Automatic annotation (TrEMBL):
Keywords: Hydrolase. Pfam families: Amidohydro_1 (PF01979). This is Amidohydrolase family protein. Residues 52-393 form the Amidohydrolase-related domain. Gene3D superfamilies: Metal-dependent hydrolases, Urease, subunit C, domain 1.
Length: 426
């Protein structure tokens, strides 16, 4: 039995394509594309009447554990270091495994409802390390979102915490299957010493995966890395052999051109996070200079990649360095294709059926030539009507099918209150 989507306008991002065409889906794949496909006897036929069939979007850098922090009380802060010490790290230290799973469920559901079907999540819960990625994976599996998960290894809690983080990120990477994959993760390098960096390099080699790390979110990363370990973060990554086409670098906001020139030839992916950067007041990351493997991530804010793309494009225009927003979105799908070993994002035969049905009635013609303008000024998560992941409907007529949103929200509020209370006890 298959699913036949008839009469829709199929969209692809790069090269841009807007075409009225039918799609047939069988199992987890798109198996046929054509202008007037005939249904097999047992097909489910869905008449779209001109609705958009849009590829599922990807957040290339997500922090799902932050989902319970929205709106929490926070002191007046003086700079990035206080943001880390008084807010982010205190919050992460207050997470237990139950809160980790609830946060991932709430964040994953929000992503799904926004049309984001794949998340590259960099997790941190220093007092609840063992089993944390399994909890995140369990939450995403329940929601129906695709996930690539890593634990952020750090020396912030000493050698024991470092080894727990390495064990967690390696163990999950080795056993992840289905809609889940693993990566080796690292916290910012000013919290990662020589032995930890050696452990990360060995973990990457032993798992044949890549490193996911936040890099140069703020100038403090380079300053403290140099003071504590004698070298800037990029130099340390290069010397450790940790830069490759499988590496995923997030933020990348404060690097000199010579440092970027070291990064770009390695083929590493660079995840631009404009909304998070603005919220943290860490300055503008020069995304136009990120090369041909630049993509977008939402970090600790909602995984609404339409909103992220709009912020990225507008901020780049404001900086006088306009980016190709369709390429940045499409690169997220290319990154997911690399992680899962199968085509994601192209609405063609053989690709995974991760797609959105969007009820978008444009006020002007929609063409391949002006698609970017519609993405930036018209399309949004409000138009997402139904979401398919792996050939299975996970949202239909704006109603999630795998979880109850009211129950998820109630559990999330309860867990958030408990986490905030534990933060106040410190």
């Amino acid at each position: 039995m298959g699913t036949l989507l008839k009469g829709g306008i199929v969209v692809e991002l790069e090269p841009a394509c807007v075409e009225r065409v039918d799609l047939r889906i069988e199992g987890e794949r798109i198996v046929a594309r054509g202008p007037d496909l005939r249904a097999a006897p047992d097909d489910e036929v869905i008449a779209l009447s001109g609705k958009l069939v849009f590829p599922g979007l990807v957040s290339s850098h997500q922090r799902l554990h932050a989902s319970l922090g929205r709106g929490m009380p926070r002191p007046k802060l003086e700079g990035y270091q206080e943001l880390l010490e008084k807010v982010r790290w205190r919050y992460e230290d207050a997470l237990d495994l139950d809160a980790v799973q609830v946060a991932a469920t709430a964040g994953g559901l929000e992503a799904l409802q926004c049309g984001t079907t794949t998340l590259f999540d960099l997790h941190s819960s220093p007092k609840a390390v063992q089993g944390s990625l399994l909890r995140v994976g369990r939450a995403l599996h329940e929601v129906g979102v695709r996930g690539v998960l890593a634990y952020a290894v750090t020396d912030r809690r000493g050698a024991v915490g470092r080894e727990e983080g390495l064990e967690e990120t390696v163990a999950f990477t080795r056993k992840a299957r289905g809609r889940l994959r693993g990566q080796v993760g690292s916290a910012p390098l000013f919290t990662v010493g020589r032995e930890a960096l050696e452990g990360l390099a060995e973990a990457v080699r032993s798992t044949s995966s890549g490193l996911h790390v936040s890099l140069a979110e703020d100038p403090l990363d380079e300053k403290l890395s140099t003071e504590r370990f004698g070298a800037a973060p990029v130099t340390r990554l290069v010397d450790s052999g940790l830069l490759s086409p499988q590496t995923l670098l997030a933020h990348v906001g404060h690097l000199s051109w010579p440092e970027l020139a070291q990064l770009l030839p390695t083929g590493a992916w660079l995840a631009h996070t404009p909304r998070s950067n603005m919220e943290a007041e860490v300055g503008y990351a020069p995304a136009l200079k990120f090369g041909h493997r630049a993509t977008l991530g939402a970090d600790s804010v909602s995984a609404d990649m339409f909103a992220e793309a709009q912020a990225a494009w507008l901020r780049s225009r404001d900086a006088g360095q306009p980016i190709d927003v369709l390429r940045y979105l499409a690169n997220g799908q290319r990154l997911a294709s690399q992680a899962f070993g199968v085509q994601v994002g192209m609405m063609r035969e053989g690709a995974l059926a991760d797609l959105l049905l969007m009820d978008y009635q444009p006020a002007t013609p929609l063409t391949a030539e002006n698609l970017a303008w519609h993405v930036v000024f018209g399309l949004g998560s409000r138009h997402v009507e139904s979401v398919m992941v792996d050939g299975v409907w996970r949202v239909w007529a704006r109603r999630p099918l795998s979880v109850n949103p009211s129950v998820v929200a109630e559990q999330s509020r309860e867990a958030a209150a408990a986490v905030w209370a534990r933060m106040g006890e410190k």
